Amino acid sequence: MKVPIxxxxxTIAGALFYSEGxxxxxxxxxxxxxxxxxxxxxxxxxxxxxLVAAYLQHRHDRVIRSLHEVLERAARPRDQIKLIxxxxxxxxxxxxxRGCAFALAVAEHGDSERVVSVARTHKKAVGDxxxxxxxxxxxxTGQTAxxxxxxxxxxxxxxxxxxxxxxxxxxxxxxxxxxxxxxSSTIAFERADHGKDN
Length: 198
What we know:
Layout: H1 5-20, H2 27-34, H3 38-44, H4 48-73, H5 77-92, H6 101-109, H7 113-136, H8 144-162, H9 166-197
Helix pairs in contact: 1-2, 1-4, 4-5, 4-7, 5-7, 5-8, 5-9, 6-7, 7-8, 8-9
């Protein structure tokens, strides 16, 4: 089955943007590598700004789908957290890994409202995944979902700078400790509350 031209352009542009940087890659380079006419590219993406936003949207869809698959693969909330970080470790343990595509895009292209909007939507969606897990675990105390999100984001940033994928496993262990502490706090709170009623 033939790949649509827009997908072909996005695949080439996305790989170049992520590996070399948005500002470093010009439209002419994308046209050349995608083997399309300039008019064809601009028919699908009216500007580089539109192309960058589409690349991020495509990446967002893929990452969020992958995180939802983790939720389906593991039944227990603790296992879901463990798997999310281990999946990130797998990605980070690759020579091509440069960190979070959304953070990189905002750092380079933060003057674009279109790009910033997709990046913010993505970060909120990742936070929502952790909120789903915490709700499923019936945790009622603290900011557990926010703590887990920060550990995930921190792992991405640390690997991007330090180039050591082990940082993700350290973040995983911290996330599991935070989760266990939240479960213990919830149980203690419920017992104390129940004691007041008696």
